[in-house]
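writing this on my phone so excuse typos. first protein, seq and then structure
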Amino acid sequence: MPPPVLRRLRVVGNSGSGKTTLARAAAGRLGAAHVELDAVFWAEGWTKRDPEEARGLLRDLLASPAARAGWVADGNWNSVRQGLLDDADAVVWLDYPRRVVMGRVVTRTLRRGVLRQELWHGNRETLRNLLRREPDQNIVLWAWTQHRHYRQSYADLAATGRVRVIRLRHPREARRWLATLVPPDPPCPGEPEA
């Protein structure tokens, strides 16, 4: 029996695990739209966008012609989505060991800080934030303190059976899984697109 067709995916996991990178690659392989939830829920100046406004933006993205063939959304934002993205065919959970996540988040944060790389809406990570003691102000500290929480939260989701959860425990597993994704067959001539 062939594996189920995946057209709508949520990629979740700890900060620095590679959610956006994997989601972008999966969207490319599937010919689907990529939706980065951080770009939706964060506004300029590292302020959180009004939740209703953000949900409106997300609804618009999901209704766009680009998302008609499917979508791959990355990010957690579970407390403010209010059911949006709950129709995913699967949740892809990057459940990497803490040492892998921490190595990635430190490297990424240093690179972004040194290069002054813009993330979205003019927001940039700064090296100064690495000195902050508050996890919500220091992405490395956030990843350290939230690791266990994300692991428990997504293990609980998987246990409910409400949605298919694809648990990837190492970047090698993620690469192998990504290689299994195939775009849908194009519609036959005269057949309406889904």
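second protein below, same order as before
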Amino acid sequence: MIDAVDRAILRTLQEDGRITNQALAERCNLSPAACHERVRRLREKGYIVGTVAVLDPVLLDCALLIFVEVLLDRTTSDVFDDFAAAVRRMPAVLECHMVAGGFDYLIKARVKDMAAYRAFLGDTLVDLPGVRETRTYAVLEEVKNTHVLPI
């Protein structure tokens, strides 16, 4: 179980994963040694699973954000496994979630532009194992995009 101090550490690290231990300790009213030990324990217990740099997709030619609903032709474990394995190998796919509802998977992907999306759809997505139908939603404006959990 984590306490209020652990939550303060986690909130701060979500905002700035590169903060020094000294600065983190000061912000959370801890000694540097106590702060370091708490962060070590939070990593060890799996609360902190990694540290990443958040990149600008526009500057890296990945400006177009798309969501794709995927409906499979069959819902059997082998089709699910084959589909999931294929998606994991696709660099343009940022997220893929099996969902309940009118379709089977929701994919979040980034590509350069509509021409790149057309190639992604025609050359890759529709050829994934078990895909019967897709529906694509191109994002016109990102209203909110965060990795910060409400803790």
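The longest strand covers residues 64-72. thats all i got for now
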